[in-house]
Amino acid sequence: MKESSTVVGVNDGVEVTRLTLSYRKPAYSVGDVVRLRKALWIVDSWQKEGPILRRLDRFERTGATWRDMESSSVVCSFSDQIVVQILNRDTSGAEFMDPGDYKVSTVALPYNDDGSSEELRIGFIDGEWLALPVSGKGE
Predict the structure, then answer these.
(1) Reduced to 3 states, what is the DSSP secondary structure of residue 118?
(2) Does the residue 139 lie in any domain?
(3) Is residue 117 in some structural domain?
(4) Residue pLDDT tens, the chain, 139 long
(5) Are 115 and 128 in contact (CB under 8 A)?
(6) Which of these, 27, 128, 124, lies nearest to 81 by C-alpha position?
(7) Do 54 and 61 meet the contact criterion of CB atoms below 8 Å apart?
(8) How far is CA 7 from CA 16, 54, 107, in A?
(9) 29, 19 Cβ separation under 8 angstroms
(10) CA 106, CA 121: separation in Å to the nearest integer?
């Protein structure tokens, strides 16, 4: 973020200044799935030093710097993720109707699935549907 102020005139003997804030938004947003160091992460939140990331396949959170994130790539943006109804579930997987071809598909449940939810958030990553873990914030 960059800040600059400029005097643009005088009004009743008082200087009038213009304050300009420049902000560079990264190529990813909160909720996007990114690939960083050959692993899949969900961008959980932003801080001044960089984003907080959650690992997709296990319970792990970490902070990353903005410089670290330059080598990352977005593999599934939040807007491309879909919430689907669970048709059938067991302890390790759930069936849902594939929104692309309307066939029943199976996906492995996320690590933090409690077994009570009737919906899953899924993303099409690397040619297959993956269930995404639910955030503690009620994502």
Answers:
(1) coil
(2) no
(3) yes
(4) 788 889 999 989 899 999 998 877 788 889 999 999 899 999 999 888 889 999 998 889 999 998 889 889 999 999 999 999 999 999 889 999 998 889 999 999 998 888 888 999 999 999 999 999 986 544 4
(5) no
(6) 124
(7) yes
(8) 6, 45, 59
(9) no
(10) 13
Whether residue 64 is found in the same domain as residue 118: no
Q: For residues 106 and 58, state if they share a domain.
A: no
Q: Give this prediction's pTM.
A: 0.75
Residue 20 amino acid letter: T
Distance from the first to the final alpha carbon of the chain: 27
Distance CA 103, CA 121 (A): 17
* Number of domains, the chain: 2
Amino acid found at 95: E
